[in-house]
Design a protein that fits this description.
Elements: E1 3-8, H1 16-25, E2 31-37, H2 41-51, E3 57-59, H3 62-66, E4 71-74, H4 81-90, E5 94-98, H5 110-116, E6 122-125, H6 132-145, E7 148-156, H7 173-176, H8 180-183, H9 185-196, E8 200-208, E9 213-214, E10 222-223, E11 229-236, E12 241-247, E13 253-260, E14 263-268, E15 273-278, E16 292-295, H10 301-316, H11 325-342
Parallel strand pairs: 1-2, 1-4, 2-3, 4-5, 5-6, 7-12
Antiparallel strand pairs: 7-13, 8-11, 9-10, 11-12, 13-14, 14-15, 15-16
Domain Gfo/Idh/MocA-like oxidoreductase N-terminal: 3-125
Domain GFO/IDH/MocA-like oxidoreductase: 136-265
InterPro entries: Gfo/Idh/MocA-like_OxRdtase_N, Gfo/Idh/MocA_oxidrdct_glycsds, GFO_IDH_MocA-like_dom, NAD(P)-bd_dom_sf
Length: 343
Amino acid sequence: MGIRIGIVGAGTTVAIADRHVEGFLAQAGRCTVTAVCSRTLEGCRRLCIRHGLDGVRMTTRLEELLDVVDAVVLCTPNQFHLPYTERAVERGKAVLLEKPLGLQTAPPGQAERLLARRDARVMVAYVYRYTAVVERLRALLRQRMGRVYLAQASQGGTRLADPAVPLEWRMRRSASGSGALGDFGSHLLDLLQYAAGVELAEAAGYGGTFLPTRRPDGQGNTCVENDDAFVFCGRGTGGALCSVSVSRVGLDGIHLCISGEGGLLRASVEEGVLTYWPKAPDGPYAPEGEARSEHLAEPPGLRFARQAAAFLDLVEGRPVEYCTLEQAVRLERLLTRLDQSAQ
């Protein structure tokens, strides 16, 4: 059976629970999905049917799930992330926690209590770390870049650009906190820190809500409470300048562009394309024709399989690099300050 995995949250809007289940099913022999918890038993049943899971404990109560698992994957709305993490850690369970943490919606002091626990095993699920293109970008930056001068990053999607999409929990501050800023901005700040070693020390920005009302379940109009898009710029602890753009109403994919002493690197993460323009640290860029491109496209499921493998390493006590709770809290405190300053 191996490590017993419990999935908490079985929503289908972006199917994040499905992606996690697929990732753990790829670790045959190391683990088994033994329990699913969701708002309704029907949601649990549908998740199990989609993945052919048999003999799984299905429940609407977190405590019942914690009775029968060794580790938990939290795929709930943001408002439950830290409260459920604390309850799981108190029961001695390892936690793979979907981002963002939900600092803006958590009870005061909850993050600090978790950080103070020496026994907490919490991995924050910044899944793009586990793509081939990001690993290659990181290696090239470490080998050839030297000092980073400028980092640009953007991420977004188009699904919510349709005004007919009903109001979702992601659009309510009580459930989500910020909007595109927390959802996409957290990914980008993690990638800048992980791949380029750029951690923002200060930043300022602007947010906008371009579709200010939505229809919940098709009945009337309700105000959207957080940002559809956000742009910010800042300075990293090492002096690098950064600019970040995120949008849930009209940007496509994840794009990074980083320049410094050793040249310029551009990565399209979803497409798996990496281009490098070399530069001598004390000289010019190489001729234009000497730019080098690598194509590292791969099925999206691989990133979740690699993340699941890393989480199992953590549960088993093996050495593994991952986004810690401490790193994620620092990142989200910056996002919270940005969100508050832009209101």
